[in-house]
Amino acid sequence: MTARLTRLSWLWRATKRLALLVALGALAWWGWPRLPDGWRAPWHIVRLSLQPAPTALPVPVAGVAPQQLADTWGASRGADRRHEGIDIFAPRGTPVLSATEGVVTRLDTTPIGGKVAWVLGPGRQMHYYAHLDGYAAAAPGKLVAPGEPLGYVGNSGNARGTPPHLHYGIYQSGGAINPYPLLRAP
């Protein structure tokens, strides 16, 4: 009898723990606002990974229309380097906006990109925002919506001496893809 009660007690505790995990997972999955981003981010990443990659994106610089863009993809950047993105010119300090919903995975300063932000979006695409003048309220692990400010247009990194602009790139498992057609899509 005691062994049976011990087994039932163990089963009851395991069932309660599983129910708690399922409840927390469901709350995070559907975005219960009181859960901090750090708790929701792993569930958000899984959900984003299951979504298809976008076929159209908004221009990630405030006030810039798709018709103002130039396709700088593939332009020479030295002896053995090609441009893996497009440059979107705007006045210094213009807000840089997330082109997609996602999770900020990294904020960093690099010799080439200067101040950069990386956002993991749908279809496991990585969206790269470079030459920023500064960051908005972004932080690694933060969940972002399309149009949410990430930073501000600048010319940091190897863009010093050039007019302020955002270098915007998209990377997926096969490497970089040209964002220009996605930003110009209807």
Q: What separation lies between the terminal Cα atoms?
A: 70 Å
As a percent range, the share of helical residues equals 25-40%
CATH superfamily of the largest domain: Glucose Permease (Domain IIA)
- What's the overall average pLDDT, rounded? 87
What is the count of helical runs?
A: 3
- The best one-word shape is elongated
Q: Please identify the top-level CATH class of the largest domain.
A: Mainly Beta
Number of domains: 2
CATH architectural arrangement of the largest domain: Distorted Sandwich
Stated plainly, the CATH topology of the largest domain is called Glucose Permease (Domain IIA)
What summary fits the major beta sheet? 9 strands, antiparallel
State the secondary-structure class. alpha+beta
Keywords:
186 residues, alpha+beta, Glucose Permease (Domain IIA), 2 domains, 3 helices
Describe the 3D structure.
- The protein folds into two domains: 2-50, no CATH class; 66-184, Glucose Permease (Domain IIA).
- Helices cover 25% and strands 27% of the residues.
- The protein has three helices and nine strands.
- Strands 1, 2, 3, 4, 5, 6, 7, 8 and 9 form a nine-stranded antiparallel beta sheet that branches.
- The longest helix is centred in the first third of the chain and has 28 residues, at 2-29.
- The chain is elongated.
- The mean pLDDT is 87.
- It comes from Bordetella genomosp. 7.
- Residues 82-179 form the M23ase beta-sheet core domain.
- This is Peptidase M23.
- GO terms for molecular function: metalloendopeptidase activity.
